[in-house]
Amino acid sequence: xxxxxxxxxxxxxxxxxxxxxxxxxxxxxxxxxxxxxxxxxxxxxxxxxxxxxxxxxxxxxxxxxxxxxxxxxxxxxxxxxxxxxxxxxxxxxxxxxxxxxxxxxxxxxxxxxxxxxxxxxxxxxxxxxxxxxxxxxxxxxxxxxxxxxxxxxxx
Length: 155
Hints:
Layout: H1 7-22, H2 40-53, H3 69-87, H4 94-104, H5 110-115, H6 117-124, H7 128-133, H8 139-154
Helix pairs in contact: 1-2, 3-6
């Protein structure tokens, strides 16, 4: 179908993505907001193909006024990594896996793996140390992990 009314926003999002590539693959995030029925979901569906054609990754989540933003983000990330596991096991995304491993460390992050279990599955990829670490968190480790998780999302 024909796409009306959001061409300016689509151009802005594509420009943002291209800018991130020019800046050396600097991760960027954009949010789309508006009243119900104003074309947000259609814009998201229209932007997916151009971004993936440019080797971009697309994580989407839908905010509800009653939902906590962290739970929406966790759900969106879990769906994203679940899709990677379903489509190709993420073999073509090794650089992303290495960057995530650098950010969370080789032992993994039990708090992150609890809220994004598909990330754990993807990162483990036969690595039993990562799988076991997610189940062995004491109170002290939990506090350290909580701080690390906040740091990772604020980085």
